[in-house]
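Session log. Operator J.P. requested a structure for one protein chain; no other inputs attached. Running the standard single-chain path with token output.
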Amino acid sequence: MIYRTLGKMGEKVSAIGVGGWHLGLKQVDEKLAIRIVRSAIDRGINFLDNCWDYNEGKSEKRMGKALRDGYRERAFVMTKIDGRSKKEAAKQLDESLRRLRIDYIDLVQHHEIIRFEDPHRVFDVEGANAALVEARAAGKLRYIGFTGHKDPRIHLYMLEIAKENGFKFDTVQMPLNVMDAHYRSFEKLVLPELVKLEIGVLGMKSMANGILLKSKTVTPIECLHYALNLPTSVVITGMDSMEILDQAFAAVESFHPFSNNDLDALLAKTHEAAAKGRFEPFKTSSIFDGTAENPEWLGDEPPEIRELVPA
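Structure written below.
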């Protein structure tokens, strides 16, 4: 396994991380999910991804069971919360702690920052970030980040609003893949800013749950190699079988930094397929927007906003 430094925190994390969503899928039983997590840790992966809303909590519960018997001490555990209000964020964080069966979470991230209003809600006086800062002071979490998959300009706006509020994120999670390089690119717009600010870079959707592979232009190993070649701290990839776990390790073992010719060749053969975002529907549709389908997860709008709007 390759280990990299997570931003300015000095944490050494595996270059590949276990995606939590797949652990709660219907075709993955609990025994297999636990085996995947424990086998990943035994073989050198220490970064575990999850989210409060994944599979109605099943993903966190299964990971919690996998973390017993000494595995928690060997893992860097990350989860995400959807709440935008302080009250809802605190509630979801406590639920995640109970499901994961741990005393603290290494990294908690604001999930699905996909609308330009999200940063304002998060940084409201009664917003979600106030809840996470208080939880950090109480020892419930160590680091704070945010995620999103829609538009790199929204990520940049989130960083701007954070700066205006005197806050700096420890990590940022975003799509980083060979298709992203051609369309509404997080790699081109956001990644350089994160590197400059020494914020930990968490890459996701390296294969977009297999959607990129349907373009018939790239292989799974090429997708993982491309993401690993970027200045990512961790490339998070979903694992729903032992074979997919083996594939992740094979990608790490065979990885070497790209030459300019290697990079140009890979980008050239994906250019046409990627040009209009067809294989990145998380950018171009609402299909992947869980918070859009479940607005109640976000909690109440800030009181001072609601007071201005006629009933």
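Operator note: The mean pLDDT is 96.
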